[in-house]
User: What shape does this take?
Amino acid sequence: MRKRIAVVGAGALGGYVGGYLAHHGMDVTLIDMWPENIETIRKSGLELDGVTPEERFTVTKARTMHLTEVQDLSKQKPIDIAFVAVKSYDTEWATMMIRPYLAPDGYVVSLQNCLNEERIASVVGWGKTVGTIASLISVDMHEAARIRRTIAKGGDKHTVFRVGEVHGRITKRIEELREMFALIDSAKTTTNLWGERWSKLCQNGMRNGVSAATGLSSGDCDRNDAIRRFSIKLGGEAVRVGQALGYQIEKISKFDPERLALAAEGDKAALDEIEKLMAPGSNVNPRADIQRPSMAQDIIKGRRTEIEFMNGYVAERGQYIGVPAPSHRTLTDVVKKVERGELKPGPATLGG
Assistant: This one.
C-alpha cells in the first residue's frame, strides 16, 4: 500500500521534494500558507526546473491544501509521513497542525535548515521525529508554483540528502526515506544526524546571513576579500562551538572542519587552502549569477529571516559552552537591522 505523504510548507524545498515524489507516482499532499501558490498549482501545476533539460517538468498529480482546508484531512486516510518544510520559527505550529492526522505509526520529518528536531519532538514526541539534511541543494521559488534549482545535482560527487534517526540507529523507516530521496538526487542514511546537522549549520552560517546582509550572490561574496575572510571566521567559530558541544562534525561542503577552524584562527597554510577552495572558478555553475541562499531570498521578498535560529543559535550555544562566537553575534545583529529596514543590504555592512 502506498504511503500517504503530506508536505507542510510547499515553498522552495518542500515543493521541490514533494513535487518530485508526486512526479514519481507517490501520494503527496502539498499544504501551504501562500494562497496564490496553492491556487496556481491547482490551475497550472507545479513547475520544477534545474540546470539540465531532464530536470524541467510540470507536476500535475500532487494534491493541494490551503491551511484553512487542513481540517478536511480528518475525512481522509491518515498521514504516514509528514515533511515539515517551513521556516524554523514556524516549526511548532506546523507540527501541531499536522499531528492529529498522523497514522498510529506515522512520523514527522524535519526537512529544514537549522536544528528543529527538538521543537518537533516537543509536539509529537521523539519516537515520531526524524531528521533530513538537504546539503548543497540550492532551490528557490521565484514565483508562485515555480521552483528552480540553481546548482547541478550531486549525483556520485556529493550526497545531497542525509536521513537519520535522533538516536543514531539505522531503521526501516529511514531506509524507506532514503529510497524516496534517491528518486530526486543522491541520498544516504546516517548514524550521525546531529553531526550532519551541525555541519549544515556551519555551511549555512558561512553563507546565508552573509548574502542577506551584503545583497551579493555567494560567488560575489567569495570574490570580495573582506567578506570572504569574514565568512571563514564564521565557519571556524561554528566548528569550534560544535566541537565543544561534542558533535562529530562531517565535512562542510568542500572544507575539512579542522582546516576551516585553523584558517579562521590565522593558520596561513590552512587559510591558503580554504581560500583556494573558495576561489571563483573552483566550481563551475551556469546559474551562479542568480544563486542566492534562502535568507538572501527572504530579504529580497521582505520576509522574516531565520538568522536567530542560524548564526544567533551558534552564538547562543557558544556562550553556553564557553566558546565565543563574536562574528556570529555581529552578523545576527546586522541581518536583523537589514530585516527591519534600518540598514540597506550592501558589502559595506560587513566591511567589504
Remarks:
- The chain has two domains: 4-191, 196-350.
